[in-house]
Design brief:
The protein has about 80 residues and is mostly helical. It has 4 helices and no strands. It is elongated. The N and C termini lie far apart (about 45 Å). The relative contact order is 0.16.
Length: about 80
């Protein structure tokens, strides 16, 4: 689980420089948390993932959306 935390922190730190790779790393962290929960959690897998993995998926999705909008704003009108 420490490795998943390192991946999540790397994604958050990477977001200062590169939005798309950072979003991919955050989505990867969400997936790794889901795998960890599926392997080791006893019950309530969905609820555990909602509390631990969904925030990373949401952050990655929002980061992708903001990157797409900022690219659109840079185009000449």
């Amino acid at each position: 689980m420490v490795g998943v935390g390192v991946v999540a922190i790397a994604g958050a730190a990477l977001s200062w420089w590169r939005e798309r790779p950072a979003a991919a790393v955050l989505v990867l962290a969400s997936f790794l948390i889901a795998v960890h929960i599926a392997a080791y959690a006893g019950r309530q897998h969905g609820l555990a993932w909602l509390g631990l993995g969904f925030p990373f998926l949401l952050a990655g999705g929002l980061l992708l959306g903001s990157e797409r909008r900022s690219d659109k704003n840079l185009e000449p009108q």
